[in-house]
Design brief:
The protein has 424 residues and is an alpha+beta fold. It has two domains: 108 residues, Fumarylacetoacetase, N-terminal domain (SH3 type barrels, Roll); 299 residues, Fumarylacetoacetate hydrolase, domain 2, CATH 3.90.850. It is 16% helix and 25% strand.
Length: 424
């Protein structure tokens, strides 16, 4: 079901590019994530692979005949594996292609990154039972988790046009909200702006309308993962979310990290899909032997905050929390199977958001809403500031990495957004 571990994952592999051998890099030769870049003034983006602090221009290197990431997605897993093997062999110490590939390198610091692909559709899921329970408890203390949660991968259709690449400046949105003591609602800048720590899942599509994707085949429709910040105006959300769910509270901005960590790179970090004793078994269309054996992913996720005062004082960002994607209640394959069980056709470049990734322990909330108990318990920062929700000038950084004994640590790069004041 999952991709095989092969020579490209060998922890002993080194690169002739020194920055790729730095223990602190997110992009060693074992990773080789894909993204789109361009130089200032250029009209089109080109496909590149990150290695250390550089980018390999894969078309210039003769490794791809296209600069269209969606075309590569449609080509399927075999084309992706061939590209990964060619990059790995060419970038290894002692490679005969070192000189040729060296001429195709571009420093990451000198280019503009674009969205990894054209995103036509975006679905946001709700896969963390810990987040669903924590947030539900704030609104429904006696019934925090609705009865369908353990049976249905809950999701909603989001707005693709407002997804932008990191680093992004996020304008504080205006919206309609109503406080508990207000006689009538009002319109204004949100007072409860929040981040949401999510994993972005890019799919390759491939099913015709009316033809579901079986869970046993779902992994072949996964292209790779990114980090994803689904910004939320909590006061707007509380007023609008019933009876149809999120609307203006979410569609003003979402930030995606620029590098796609391919499913092949993630192969060593797949883990069994397990639920606690007493939890219901998924319905048959959401269950398979392969999904039980290796459907989950051991991916550490973090949120860091840098305030304007911190930067002014020369202080580094502060980590607010850490969780792990393996704690999700639903797997990536289950999301694909459920999304298509009614015959919905997926298209190359479609994006799934995992939903906020919170952990089971206190302090592992993937949003300010959880960490501040809905604003009732403000977070005290190391420099003396406090936060219930985000303020103008705040910079939120999402980070993710996979590590396992016997394998090289790989990272996702930063997903960064800075809050700017509202207009009007």
């Amino acid at each position: 079901m999952t991709d095989a571990i092969d020579d490209t994952h060998d922890a002993a592999l080194g690169s002739w590019l020194a920055s790729a051998n730095d223990p602190g890099t997110d992009f060693p030769i074992q990773n080789l994530p894909l993204g789109r870049f361009r130089h200032s003034g250029e009209a089109r983006f080109r496909i590149g692979a990150a290695i250390g602090d550089q980018i390999v221009d894969v078309a210039k290197a003769g490794l791809l005949a296209t600069d269209d990431m969606n075309e590569l997605m449609r080509a399927g897993p075999a084309a992706r594996r061939t590209l990964r093997q060619s990059l790995s062999r060419g970038l290894r110490e002692g490679s005969a292609d070192a000189s040729r590939l060296h001429s195709c390198l571009v420093p990451q610091s000198e280019v503009e990154m674009g969205l990894p692909c054209h995103i036509g559709d975006y679905t946001d899921f709700y896969t963390s039972i810990h987040h669903a329970t924590s947030v539900g408890r704030q609104f429904r203390p006696d019934n925090p988790l609705l009865p369908n949660y353990k049976w249905v991968p809950i999701g909603y259709h989001g707005r693709a046009s407002s997804i932008a690449v990191s680093p992004e400046t996020v304008r504080r949105p205006r919206g309609q909200f109503k406080g508990p003591d207000d006689e009538v609602p009002s319109l204004g800048p949100t007072r409860r702006l929040d981040y949401e720590l999510e994993v972005g899942i890019l799919v390759t599509g491939g099913n015709a309308q009316g033809e579901p994707i079986a869970i046993a085949d779902a992994e072949a429709h996964l292209f790779g993962l990114t980090l994803f910040n689904d910004w939320t105006a909590r006061d707007v959300q509380a007023w609008e979310y019933q009876p149809l769910g999120p609307f203006l509270s979410k569609n003003f901005a979402s930030t995606l990290s620029p590098w796609v960590i391919t499913m092949e790179a993630l192969a060593p970090f797949r883990v069994p899909f397990e639920r606690a004793a007493g939890e219901p078994s998924p319905l048959p269309y959401l269950d398979s032997a392969g999904n039980r054996v290796s459907g989950a992913l051991d991916l550490t996720l973090e949120v860091w905050l840098s305030t304007a005062a911190m930067r002014g004082a020369g202080l580094p960002p502060q980590r607010l929390m850490q969780s792990n994607f393996r704690d999700s209640y639903w797997t990536m394959a289950q999301l694909v199977a459920h999304h298509t069980v009614n015959g919905c056709n997926l298209v190359a470049g479609d994006l799934f958001g995992s939903g906020t990734q919170s952990g089971p322990a206190p302090g592992q909330g993937g949003s300010m809403l959880e960490l501040s108990a809905g604003g009732k318990q403000p977070l005290r920062l190391a420099n003396g500031e406090s936060r219930s929700f985000l303020e103008d000038g705040d910079t939120v950084v999402l980070r993710g990495y996979c590590e396992r004994a016997g394998y090289r640590r790989i990272g996702f790069g930063d997903c960064t957004g800075t809050i700017a004041p509202a207009i009007g």
